Amino acid sequence: MFGYILRRLAVAIPTLLLLIIFSFLLMHAAPGGPFTGERALPPQVLANLEAKYGLDDPLLVQLWNYLKDVVLHFDFGPSFVYPDRSVNQLIADGFPVTLTYGLLSFVLAALVGIALGSVAAIRQNSWLDYLAVGISIGAQVLPNFVMAPILVLVLTLWMGWLPGGGWSFTDPSYWVMPVIALGTSYMASVARITRSSMLEVLGSNHIRTARAKGMPESRVIIRHALKPALLPVISYLGPVFVSMITGSVVIDIYFSTGGIGRAFVDSALNRDYAVMMGVTILIGALTILFNLVVDILYAWIDPKIRY
Amino acid sequence: MTKFFATTALALALALPANAAQVAVGDTLADNQELSFWILDAIKSLDPQKNTDKTGSYVLAQLFEGLMNEDAKGAMVPGAAESYEVSEDGLTYTFKLRDAKWSNGDPVTAGDFVYSWQRAVNPETASEYAWFMELMNIVNATAVVKGEMTPDQLGVKAVDDKTFQVTLSTPTPYFIKTLSHTTTFPVNQKVIEELGDNWTQPGNLVGNGAYTLQSHNLGVNAVVAKNDNYWDAANTIITQVDFITVNDQNVALTRYEAGELDWFNRLPAGQYPRLAEQYPDQASTSPQACSYAYIFNLSDKGPEALKDLRVRQALSLAMDRDVVVDRILQGGQKPAYYWTHWAIEGFEAPEIAMASMTQPERIEQAKALLAEAGYGPDNPLAITVQYNTSEDHKKIAVAAQQFWRGIGVNATLNNVEWKVHTDRLQNQDFEVARYAWCGDYNEASTFLDWFRTDGYNSGKWSNAEFDKLLADSKTSDNAADLYKQAEQILADEVPFVPVYHYANAQIVNADLRGVPYENVMENWYAKDMYRVAE
């Protein structure tokens, strides 16, 4: 197992390197640059900007310098669009925000989704099942860009319970709407996956054996059914986890959280090369890491899997 | 340039009191003098010489004070300068600075302005707005930006601690109007040299404005609070301004209605009529110095068809501006038949024939012109219209497509993202493109210069007579007349389809006073405002 983890981590390095090179080249291939706007800058002004940010070097030299800074100094460079800040600062500001609401939404989606799905499967075709399925379908069809403004309308304007946007690490009232808006559709997916996988497990031989032994139903479900039923849920949640903690542009726009999701999309639209590379690397590294975590979890849950 | 100009300008500056919150008779001040103002996006920079957008300018105008400020109508009033003199040749401006302090207690000196203006053109600063100093025609600005001269050769000097002198390369009638722009704001050399790029962080930032930076949470909000070291702090009533970022305008409106915002100045298109009815004491619309147009590509890379004047005239005639402003935008915008925004100070529009025709008359004439140019049902004109991603641009483009279909033109719409759009505009890689221009200062040349042969002029239209009029306007006593003639040339030559002049549909808390609704440049100073008890 330990050797396996080391091997996977060793493969991660060339993977990340390829990701950096491809993103870098693709990004520079897109038309326009960080300083194209409605007024064409005079050539001398543009030349000074390009010199300052090293954009006047040949592309491969830029790539090499970038890699050097990232690998040797862990320095992701200055932002071209936010000249007062470095990419490291921007990520340090925005990532904790998305990490907070993303993590909470993830917990909400996983716990409520698994509970709803399990209840629905155990009481299949009862009113509980219909209710759980109804909730999850409702949550699934309501996209977050529809739900977000509705939440603000109801909870802020009509009820006056919650601030309509913004962010504070010390005041949880700012977290509620982002967490609900981001978490519900994932929760619905988790519920549906859990329900069908649970139904399959409940019909399998080892459950019949457990019941035949006279084991109490609660124990049958928690010890013998839930664990194998969670395997497909985990393989779904692994990649979802990364996309949740790195934020959602929709949540960031509607709730003005200052999160990294909005910064990422903006950086692509603004051609803010350094920010875009920084966030790409962050997401890439997290994806590789959590894919590994999922595989380890698999081995822990399913005794049939051995690396 | 005559003595007359110099003396009147000086007298004008002296006669005007510096602005401050002037509480009207009968108004009782509210206990709460905090203000929350909506901004669309994260603030890109709080460095005056690196700021590039309006959002940053709103905040910077509170934190710093340039030589001149603007009053509620947009007229220039003394700011950090208490008066100025212009030399007879119109080339030297001498500013007398008032006794003022930085927020850290240091005195504001002429040397601070010298440092800041040199900083703006210094290639090391790499300011995107270095061109602004070139626009101001300061001696050697271009050479310094190019690196051919050193920043200390820029035409600015500190005669003494309180006397700042600027030398221009050519008389510049609008020079004084450029002085409320953030690029010209003073910055504190000591702080910048000590802290580098981090100097704009809360706690570090030192300014000479009426407010200081309390907190800045990128993409969330920035709070500025009253600066007790400001020279007119005694007359400053608003104690705090919270600049709140809300990226979605519909959510911003909800949050305004929930009382989280006091001032939201970009109502979503189409919302204004309902709000004006619902909140007559809060919703309003006021002119904003931008014009919206479709630009024709008249360069060698442009389509042959558009080089025919009759085709351009037909396309302009068929554009039903009333539908665009009354049905799509509905926020107090005005149909445009010329380029300069109608509300620009001192601008007199020429008589444009098309403006007085009815739409059916225009369509009839457009069809005749197209037929003359050889286009008809058998040989329809086909053009591609490029616009950048936005709901409003899309609605207008779809409407334009319909208007042009009405005269037998097949317009294909091509939606591209902003960076692609501007890249293609600058490389003449388009046929007809949506465009909007916002004035840099409150004078017609900021619009008309766009169409100069060496102007931004993405369509590469060129007209020697037009260029000459604008060159002459710099030294003319009657620039307004020359601008009028220049507009007439544009109207005759039709290098673009003017569509509408911007207006700002906004909603403002009914207890806020001193909002500069009539300032087309949308510059405002919280120090000039106050809230009344309801």
In short:
The complex is a heterodimer of chains A (307) and B (534). By secondary structure, chain A is mostly helical.
Estimated helix fraction of chain B: 25-40%
The shape of chain A, in one word, is flat
Number of domains of chain B: 2
Largest sheet of chain B: 7 strands, mixed
The interface involving the most residues is between: A-B, 53 and 54 residues
Tally of DSSP helical segments of chain A: 12
Top CATH class of the largest domain in chain B: Alpha Beta
| Tally of DSSP β-strands of chain B | 19
Cα(first) to Cα(last) distance of chain B is: 52 Å
Oligomer: heterodimer
The counted number of beta strands of chain A is: 0
Strand content of chain A: under 5%
Q: What Rg of chain B is obtained from the alpha carbons, in whole angstroms?
A: 24 Å
Series of secondary-structure elements of chain A, N-terminal to C-terminal: HHHHHHHHHHHH
Number of helical stretches of at least 4 residues of chain B:
16
N/C terminus separation of chain A? 6 Å
pLDDT averaged residue by residue of chain B: 94
Task: Give the overall form of chain B.
Answer: globular
Runs of chain A in which pLDDT lies below 50 for 5 or more consecutive residues are: none
Query: How big a fraction of the residues of chain B is strand?
Result: 15-25%
The percentage helix of chain A is: over 70%
Question: Would you give an account of this structure?
Answer:
The complex is a heterodimer of chains A (307) and B (534). Chain A is mostly helical and 307 residues long. Helices cover 75% and strands 0% of the residues of chain A. Chain A is built from 12 helices and no strands. In chain A, helix 4 packs antiparallel against helix 5 and helix 4 runs parallel beside helix 12. The radius of gyration of chain A is 24 Å and the shape is flat. The mean pLDDT of chain A is 91. Chain B has 534 residues and is an alpha+beta fold. Chain B has 2 domains: 258 residues, Alpha-Beta Complex (Dipeptide-binding Protein, domain 1); 216 residues, Dipeptide-binding Protein, Domain 3 (Dipeptide-binding Protein, domain 3). In chain B, strands 11, 12, 13, 14, 15, 16 and 17 form a 7-stranded mixed β-sheet that branches. In chain B, strands 1-10-9-8 form a 4-stranded mixed β-sheet, with helices on one face. In chain B, strands 4-5-7-6 form a 4-stranded antiparallel β-sheet. Chain B starts with a helix and ends with a strand. The N terminus of chain B is likely disordered. At the A-B interface, helix 2, helix 4, helix 6, helix 10 and helix 11 of A face helix 4, helix 5, helix 7, helix 13 and strand 16 of B.
